[in-house]
Structures are given as C-alpha cells and as structure tokens.
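pasting for ref. prot 1 ->
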Amino acid sequence: MHAIVYAPQIPDSRFQCACVLMPSHCNVSQEHGTCSHPAKPDAELRWGVPHTLADKISCFTRRYAEHSGYWESTSFLESVQGRTDPVTFRDSVTGAPLFVAPQGRSWAEFVKESRAHGWPSFRDSEVVWDSVRVIGSSGETVSLTGTHLGHNLPDRNGNRYCINIASISAKSPEEAGLSGSNEHELR
C-alpha cells in the first residue's frame, strides 16, 4: 500500500479558496482502488445506498459519478424532512465526518441548490477540512484516505462541492450499533 501525503493549502486562482488543495500526484492507488479497503456494508450505510454503488463510486472512479438526481431516489429527503439541525455526512469507506450541513442556510435552501445541480451541493462552511481535500488540477474532491467524493464546481456564489450521496452515506457509530460518539449525528 502506498502512503498518501497531503500538501498544505496551495493557492489556485480558479477557486475562491477556503478549500485545502493537494497536488494531483498525491492521488495514488491503494489496496482497494483509491481506498485502503471496501466501502461499508449495507447495514452501515444510510438512506438505502447499496454497498456495491458506494464501493464503485468511492473507490473505483475518479472522473465519473452516480447519475444526476440519484440522491433524490434514496430515502435521504424523507429522513431530513422537518429537521432544523444539521446532519453530519460521513465517508462511506471510513465513517469519518466530511460535511455538516446545512450551515448558514436552511434545509430548504440546501435542497433547492442540490436539486438545481443534481447532487448534494455543499459550500465551504459545510466542509470538514480536517478530512477533505480538493485536487487542484481537476477540482476532484476526496477524503484524506482517498475516497472519491465528487468535484468542486465553483459558481457565482463561490466554491460548490457537488458530492455523490453514495460516497457520504455512512452511519454514525451509534446508528450502526458500534461504539463511539460525535456531534451532529443524524438520529
């Protein structure tokens, strides 16, 4: 297995950077595609996302994504209906927190923007930068452990991370019946 070394923030004029960039040479193969091991089993994934899709999108693709609008066919929207507090979106391979949303906007605004772009769409304030990086040459957004998440596609409002729901659907340890605890869990 190759060690992955991530660079500190690298300026890039294409992005209105609050994002942490890494050079493309850090994007290396590991034991399981770009991941150290497969995505979590079905029982440890939320919203009806199947392990096979999570594994394919998270570990074996760099340029492609789940189809536009797929996230709306999952139970995600039903699970957040009526919520006012943010949800922690977790890496489907490692379970690490990657995004906490919505932040600075309502659920209705989050859903409206996500529907307009076809994928859950996050802003800089919703990214857990201790766990996420953007590959400067392509805008690909990845976890620190190599999970493919999606792409940064900036618009007039700034950085917009269009992320595959299959890559961010891990349950919290409590939801999965495991030990451990973190804030902002979906309960």
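and prot 2 ->
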Amino acid sequence: MRRRLSTYHLFTVLLLCARIISSSSFTAPKSKHHYHRRKSAINVEPSIIGGIVVATGATAAWWIGGAKDRENKANFAEYEALQRERESLAFVQPKDEWLEEELSAYNGENNESGPILLAVKGDVFNVWKGRNFYGPGAEYHIMAGRDATRFLAKNKLEEETKEEKKIELNIAERANLEVWYWTIRNKYQFVGNLSGYDPKATEM
C-alpha cells in the first residue's frame, strides 16, 4: 500500500512540474539582436524546473526502494520471532542420561509443536527442526522416539525381526552410520546420552 501511494505521489509531482514547464512563455524580443530567455509562468528558469523534476524522481525512487527494504526487514523480524516461539515450544531439558523407554514420549505424536527425540550411536538429539522428516506421517517417523542407530546404519525404514537384530553391523553399515551420525550431530541439538549403549556395537 505504501509503495502504491509513493508511486501516486511521484506521478502527481511530475505532472505538476510538466504543467509548469508547459505554461512557460517567451517575452517579445526588443530587437533582432536582443532577446529574453524563456522563463516559466512563476518566473523560474526551465532548467531549474527540470532539475527539480529529476531530483523529485530520484527522491521518490529512493523512498520506494527504502520502503521495500523496510518491508523485507519487517518480514525477517516476524520470521525470527516465529522461529523463537517454535523453539520455545519444542524445548526439552537436556540431561545426562535417557532411557530408551523415555524417548517414546517424544515421538511427535502427542504434541505437534513439541520436541522430537531420537538416539544415534548412544547420543540423544532433539530433531524438532526436522519435523517434516521425523514428525507423524513423515518419511522417517519410524525413527522418532527411539534408538534409530540400526535404521540409519542399514538405510532401512522397516522394523527388524528378532533374528536380524542379533546380527552385528558389518563394516559398510558402520561406515554408513558414521556419515549419518555426523550429519545429525551437526544439524540438531544434543540433549544427552542413551542409557545402556554399547559403543563396541558401532565402532569402526
């Protein structure tokens, strides 16, 4: 709305200046060799009027550009405020140790704005920022609220059978897990350690 008003004001000023210039008139020459320079009806040199028009246009253009910049800053401030609110709603108090049973309460199903926890290689992370990946109905939701180590190592989104769970991870799966671990660690908040984790099960 401000931009439209600014454009309207610019057009009005330019139109007024154009009328002033068009209303200028010559003074009858006194002789063949003497003449008066043309002046506007308000006794201002046309060159000055032209300068006013240029200056007015430049000022108006600056104002319109400034209005856009102010609008962008306001939108960014609004976005930051929304992010702080989301972060506050998804906060969970970090602690030294988590039981895997405790994680199940933070799978995103009980609170659509709350924290989402998962464990990888004995570390527990709050992955609420990746709600579109780990939230209810999302592709990786099966990993939420539990130890996701073997899912990530095997690149599988299906439950393992009891027999499959007894098989140790091979070297390729452990290497794959390492990549996933550092991706998640660099992206999400660390909130504690998983109780009972055996590092030998995933070490290279």
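The two ends are 61 Å apart (CA to CA).
The chain has seven helices and four strands.
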